[in-house]
Fold this protein.
Amino acid sequence: MSQIDDDLGVQDFVEVRLPAAGAYLSVLRTATAGLAARLDFTLDEIEDLRIAVDEACAILLQQAVPGSVLSCEFRLVGDSLKVTVSAPTTDGKAPERDTFAWTVLSALAGEVDSSVGEDKTVTISLHKKRGGSAAH
């Protein structure tokens, strides 16, 4: 884990890069749980966040370029964990927000957003606050 400076001041930052394949998602689930535990999230909050990260990755893997890299960044800021998952995609389309998967993400992670880069890289961002209500 390293510390970086940004607009919010010094914060803990972890980046995990792995093949864009479902077989590697257990690594991200474990990293998510460990970092959330570091912030003293409850067991329920940790499990919600693990499922949310898994769901965000599943959404991206459906359209990821074969053989590409899935990148996951974790930022520990105060009593919250910001998770950003991204992958180069074949179509460069943001996830639909009126789907069951998006509803699950929002319910489990709190704040959820997505964006698409000029290179068709799709990013899903999750922001989970400790002790906060998931639904805002």
Summary: Residues 1-6 have pLDDT under 50 and may be disordered. The helical segments are 25-38, 43-61, 100-109.
